[in-house]
Amino acid sequence: MTVNENPRAAAQHVNELINGACATQVIAAAVSLGLPEQLAQGPKPADQIAAAVKAHAPSLFRLLRAMETLGLVETREDGAFALTEAGQLLRADAPQSVRGRALFAGDLLWKQFEDLTHSVRTGERARTIGHEGFAEFPNNPARLEAFQRAMVETSVRAVHAAVKVYDFGRFGHVLDLGGGYGGVLGVLLQTYPRLTGAVCDLGYLADRATAYLGEAGVGDRAAFIGGDFFKSVPAGFDLYLMKFIIHDWNDERALTILRHTRAAASASAKLVLLEQVVPERLSRDPADQAIARADLTMLTVGGKERTESEYRALFAATGWRLTSITPASDTIAVIEAAPG
Ligand SMILES: C[S@@+](CC[C@H](N)C(=O)[O-])C[C@H]1O[C@@H](n2cnc3c(N)ncnc32)[C@H](O)[C@@H]1O
C-alpha cells in the first residue's frame, strides 16, 4: 500500500520528513562532543562519557537515548551505551567514516538551508552564509575542516567507484582542479603507481592538502599548486579532473572555469568531471533524492546540478566536446570531454 492510499502512512511519512532536522542535529551534537570516539573502546555508561567529554550528565543521557531511537547506539543490560554498526560510521577513524559530513550538515549546510525560501523566490544564494563563499573559510577553521573532510569522504568513495569503470591509468600527469585536500588525487595515485599529479586550489589549503597527501602515502608524486581557476589554470597536464567543481557555480562562472581549463590543455589532453548528472525525470528512489538534495544545496550557494544536455552545452561553448558519460555509482558519473 502506498502513502497515497493510506492516510496514516501519509501522515507518518510527512512527519518523518518534517522531523529530519532533529536527527541532523542529534548526530552533529554527538559527533561534536566526540561520543563515537568515547565509545570506540567499548560500552560505557552515560555519566562516565559525560565526565570524559565535560557534558551535563542527565542531558547527555537524553541525547544518547535519542540516538538509540535512531539506531546509532544501543543500551546493554547494565545500562551502558554501545555504538551500533551505523553508529561506528560516525567515528573519525572508521574506514567509511561520515563524521565530516555530519559536522558539515549540522553547521554550514544547516545555515544554507535556513534561507531556502529566499533562494527559491529570487534564485539568489542563501543570505545566511557569507558572501565571500570559499574565500571566507579561513575565518572559521573548524568549518573549513568539516567541509573539506566531508569532501574527502565523498571523494574517496566516488573515486574508488570511478576507477572500476574508467581507466585513469592511461594518463601520466593529472591535475585535480579545485581538489581541496586531495581526496580524489590521493585515491588515483594509490591506485596507479606510475601516475603523478597536483592539486590546484586556493592558496590557504597548501599546508592541509600537503599533509593529507603525505598521510595518504602519495606525497612524493603529488604537488600542491595555489591558484584561482577564475584567473587561470596551470598547463602541462594530460588529464584535467574536477570533482564537484562545476556544480558549485552558475553557468557564467562555470563557463569561465571551463574556458580557462581549455586554454591550459593541449590538443591531446582530456577533461573529466565527476558530478551527479540529473536525469530528465527524478523518482522517489534514494539516489534521485540525493541528487535533488544536492541540487538544492547548490541552489543555496549559487550553483546547480545539471543534466547531460546542460553539460554538453557548457562544453560546446568552451571548446570542449562531450565524449562519454559513465555512471560510477548511483549518483556519481565520470563525464569525459576532449578538445573539440
Ligand atoms: C565542493 S569543493 C570540492 C573539493 C574536491 N574537488 C572534492 O570533491 O573533494 C570545491 C573546491 O573548489 C575550491 N575552489 C573554490 N574557488 C576556487 C578558485 N577560485 N580557484 C581554485 N579552487 C577553488 C574550494 O576551495 C574547494 O576545495
Reconstruct the topology from this structure.
Elements: H1 7-18, H2 20-33, H3 35-38, H4 46-53, H5 57-69, E1 73-75, E2 81-83, H6 85-88, H7 99-106, H8 108-114, H9 116-122, H10 141-165, E3 173-177, H11 183-191, E4 196-201, H12 206-215, E5 222-226, E6 239-243, H13 251-264, E7 270-275, H14 286-299, H15 308-316, E8 320-327, E9 333-339
Parallel strand pairs: 3-4, 3-6, 4-5, 6-7
Antiparallel strand pairs: 1-2, 7-9, 8-9
Residues 134, 151-152, 155, 178-180, 183-184, 201-202, 227-230, 243-245, 248 line the site of S-adenosylmethionine.
The CATH class label of the largest domain is: Alpha Beta
Number of strands: 9
Under CATH, the homologous superfamily of the largest domain reads Vaccinia Virus protein VP39
Which stretches are poorly predicted, pLDDT < 50 over at least 5 residues?
none
Query: Kindly state the mean pLDDT as a whole number?
Result: 96
Strand content: 5-15%
Supply the helix-strand structural class.
alpha/beta
Q: What is the helix tally?
A: 15
The CATH topology of the largest domain: Rossmann fold
Characterize the structure shown.
Helix content is 46%, strand content 14%. It is α/β, with parallel strands linked by helices and 340 residues long. It is globular. Bound molecules: S-adenosylmethionine. S-adenosylmethionine (SAM) is lined by residues 134, 151-152, 155, 178-180, 183-184, 201-202, 227-230, 243-245, 248.
